[in-house]
Amino acid sequence: MLTDSAAGRLLVISGSTRSESANSALCRTVMSFASGELIVDGVLDVAMLPHFNPDDDHEPLPATVSALRSAIAAADAVLFCSPEYAGTLPGSFKNLLDWTVGGNELTGKPVAWVKVAPDARRGEGAHATLATVLGYVQAVVVDDACRHIPVTSELIGPDGLITDAVTLRAIEETVRAVLPA
């Protein structure tokens, strides 16, 4: 299994507000890989953050923003998984990203994203916007870890985790690729 060959602390962030989304299923699945030398934390509720306001981006930060920035700072790498709405990032996920701009937690941090849309043509606008924001905060995009891994509801078990062996292998390869050696 993955944990035998991967080490470090990975933060997975779902950009979806739907609890039953394929994006969150992928993140929960990655979180289930944790054991031994691999620690995986997750942010699965992007709606928990207050609306970004630059006037509020100072100490003391809202507790949820402080927790987000602390989780990013503690991670060795960050893996994003977000749907696309109307050709770009969902507003709640963009709000999460806006809260990262005032800190430097993503600066120099290895990051990647996974697109789970069954149709490979979907999601490009969201990932282009994500790449722009990640470039702005000077994150290090690990291109080899950015992938299209289609996830349909048939691949998700009743526990909310992905069960398909081929899909699990692709997810494991992504985790290995994003974590620093």
Q: Whole-number average pLDDT?
A: 94
How many beta-strand runs?
A: 6
Domain count, please report it.
Answer: 1
Number of helices: 5
Give the strand content: 15-25%
Shape: globular
Summarize the amount of helix as a percent range. 25-40%
Would you give the CATH topology?
Answer: Rossmann fold
Q: How many strands, which pairing sense, and closed or not: the largest β-sheet?
A: 6 strands, parallel
What is the correct CATH architecture?
3-Layer(aba) Sandwich
Instruction: Give the C-alpha Rg.
Output: 15 Å
- The quaternary organization reads as single chain
| N-to-C CA distance | 18 Å
**Poorly predicted ranges (pLDDT <50, ≥5 residues)?**
none
- The CATH superfamily appears as Flavodoxin domain
SSE ordering: EHEHEHEHEEH
CATH class: Alpha Beta
Instruction: Specify the structural class.
Output: alpha/beta
Key features of this structure:
181 residues, single chain, 6 strands, alpha/beta, Rossmann fold, globular, six-stranded parallel β-sheet
Report on this model:
- The chain has helices at residues 22-32, 63-74, 91-101, 124-136, 165-178, and strands at residues 8-14, 38-43, 77-81, 110-115, 140-141, 147-148.
- The chain has 181 residues and is of the alpha/beta class.
- The chain has a single domain (2-178), classed as Rossmann fold.
- Strands 1, 2, 3, 4, 5 and 6 form a 6-stranded parallel beta sheet that branches.
- The longest helix has 14 residues, at 165-178.
- The radius of gyration is 15 Å and the shape is globular.
- 38% of the residues are buried.
